[in-house]
Amino acid sequence: MRAAVFNAYGPSSVLHIADVPIPQPMPHQVLIRVHAAGINPSDWGIRKGQLRWVLPITFPKTLGSECAGVVEAVGELVMHVKPGDRVVALLGHKGGGYAEYALAIMERVVKLPDTVSFVQAAAVPVTGITALQSLRDLGHVRPRDEVLINGASGGVGTMGVQIARLLGANVTGVSSGANEALVRELGANRFVDYRQTDFTERTGDRYRVIFDAVNKRTFADCRRVLTPDGTYVTTRPSPAVLLRSFFNGPDRQKAKFIGAKDRGRDVEWLIKQMSSGRLRAVIDRTYPLEAVAEAHDYSEGGHVKGKLVIEIF
Ligand SMILES: NC(=O)c1ccc[n+]([C@@H]2O[C@H](COP(=O)([O-])OP(=O)(O)OC[C@H]3O[C@@H](n4cnc5c(N)ncnc54)[C@H](OP(=O)(O)O)[C@@H]3O)[C@@H](O)[C@H]2O)c1
To answer: Are residues 118 and 136 in the same domain?
Structure first.
């Protein structure tokens, strides 16, 4: 099968297409014929070796932590899907999605209704679970909470705006002005252009939850505009946040780091919202497998609108 692989850490040019054997499923695994695979910033972080201490890899490596496609074969313990079913899967940091076939652990494979396309589905697992777990499990967002999403037009942020609204919150989205229409259309009640206004200086506004999806503002900055019992959630750990999360008291402002957990039931929830029209993936661009290096370069620029997806035919 064709797969995008790399044999050493480095720039996007290390990625190349190779002919590799089709993997065979273990008893608890599902083999998926991949039609679409999502791209995430952690993919190029791994490729560059930035995450080598936390996520060591062996070469040759195929990236891709989420995909959608058709079940090709299943291990003997797999009961909930069968060959021919349309599915979406979280592959985790083990990766494998940038290929014609990928192996997934059965608990992380979810059936896909006909109403959700492969491209839409492949764009959701990683960013969707990150936003869902940040807002629901760490922020404990409740109806009518004021919630601010920093990086509202990115992969995690576009999910965050919609999920915060689904949880009943009033949402303020922050991105550059060029993305205001998109962020409002996703459900944000208010919008801040970070190039014009520093939201942490607008001390007349208070948020019960600030979700910094793009790790651009510190807890220290955000405290000024958090309610006294407010929670700041970030997608990247810093010593200050880790220390603070350890000493979080019962009545004080809290700082938390999301390390998203690969839970199939959260993906199932997200797909259910998509099939009923309450949630959608924003797709900036799609690429053929051969153009994966180009996709990495664009992602690394830091201004993707929603998600990038590889389509494999
Ligand atoms: N810990 C975890 O479990 C976990 C899981 C998933 C992702 N992550 C991490 O979360 C981060 C975000 O991921 P992502 O997929 O959302 O990234 P992304 O899609 O690449 O984010 C791009 C977005 O960031 C916005 N942005 C850039 N600079 C900004 C600024 N100064 N203020 C506000 N917004 C700004 C851009 O908006 P404009 O174009 O308008 O500037 C763009 O739409 C990454 O670091 C990723 O590795 C962590």
So the answer is: no
155 lines ligand 1 (CB under 6 A): yes
- Indicate if ligand 1 lies below 6 Å from the C-beta of 230: no
Flag whether 268 is in a domain.
no
233 C-beta closer than 6 A to ligand 1 = no
The residue nearest atom 2 of ligand 1, judged by CA position, is 259
Q: Is 27 a member of any domain?
A: yes
Q: Mark whether 182 and 294 lie in a shared domain.
A: no
166 with 111, same domain: the answer is no
Cα 17 from chain centroid (whole Å) = 25
Q: What are the tens digits of pLDDT across the range 248-302?
A: 666 589 999 999 999 999 999 999 999 999 999 999 999 999 999 999 999 999 9
> Structural domain of residue 59, as residue ranges?
2-123+281-311
Quick one: what percent of the chain has pLDDT higher than 90?
Answer: 93
* 194 Cα–ligand 1 center, Å: 13
Is any atom of ligand 1 closer than 6 Å to the C-beta of 130?
Answer: yes
CA–CA distance, 49 with 8 (Å, rounded to integer): 9
Q: Does residue 301 fall inside a structural domain? A: yes
Note the pLDDT tens digit of each residue in 125-163. 999 999 999 999 999 999 999 999 999 999 999 999 999
In the block, residue with structure tokens 């599902």: 30
Based on the fold, state whether residues 218 and 302 are members of the same structural domain: no
Same-domain check for residues 189 and 72: no
For the chain, the domain total comes to: 2
Q: Is residue 221 part of a domain?
A: yes
* Closest C-alpha among 297, 302, 251, 273 to residue 121: 273
Query: Among the atoms of ligand 1, which is closest to the Cα of residue 153?
Result: 43
